[in-house]
Structure formats: structure tokens, C-alpha cells
Amino acid sequence: MAKVHYRCSDLGYQCSFEYEGPKPEDILPRIKMHMKYAHQIQELSPEEIEKVKSKFKTVE
Ligand SMILES: [Zn+2]
User: Fold this and answer.
1) Measured in angstroms, how far is the CA atom of residue 47 from the centroid of ligand 1?
2) Is the pTM of this model over 0.90?
3) Domain ranges (residues) in the chain
4) Cα separation of 14 and 59, whole Å?
5) Counting beta carbons within 10 angstroms of the beta carbon of residue 6, is it exposed (0 to 12), middle (13 to 18) or buried (19 or more)?
6) 3 state SS for the chain
7) Which of 12, 3, 4 is CA-nearest to residue 39?
8) pLDDT digits (tens, 9 = 90+) for 3-58
9) Distance CA 25, CA 56 (A)
10) How far is the CA of 14 from the centre of ligand 1 (A)?
11) How far apart are CA 12 and CA 60, in angstroms?
């Protein structure tokens, strides 16, 4: 089963957070929460969400 994988360091953060799930919409809420608590980004803008999504990698 393919999974979507996200790594904070791919966005340029000095951060070891990574997360994966079956689909982008499954992992986005968890990433948003991480952004809020770890990076003090209260609300991701649509542009920032696109940036995050552009770093998603599909892994087998
Ligand atoms: Zn992070």
C-alpha cells in the first residue's frame, strides 16, 4: 500500500518531525497541529498548505 510521507526538514525547518498516512487529507490535520505547536503557525495559509503538499512524497 502506497503512503504519503511528509518531513518537516524538506520545508527547511530544523525539525525532525515526520508523518505519514494513506492520503494527503489524512496527514494534513496532524501536520497543521504540529505547525501550530512546534512552529507557532496558528493557521496555515492556502499558499503554505500548497507548499506543504508539494513536499509530500509517495512511498511504497
Ligand atoms: Zn516541524
Assistant:
1) 17
2) yes
3) 3-59
4) 23
5) buried
6) CCEEEEEHHHHCCCCCCEEEECCHHHHHHHHHHHHHHHHCCCCCCHHHHHHHHHCCEEEC
7) 12
8) 999 999 999 999 999 999 999 999 999 999 999 999 999 999 999 999 999 999 99
9) 11
10) 7
11) 24
Instruction: Output the CA 3–ligand 1 centroid distance in Å.
Output: 19
How far does the centroid of ligand 1 lie from the alpha carbon of residue 60, in Å? 23
Which residues share a beta bridge with 59? 3
**31 Cα: distance to centroid of ligand 1 (angstroms):** 8
How much distance in Å is there from the Cα of 37 to the middle of ligand 1?
A: 9
18 CA distance to ligand 1 middle (Å): 8
Take residue 23 and report the three cell numbers written for it: 492520503
Centroid of ligand 1 to alpha carbon of 1 (angstroms): 26
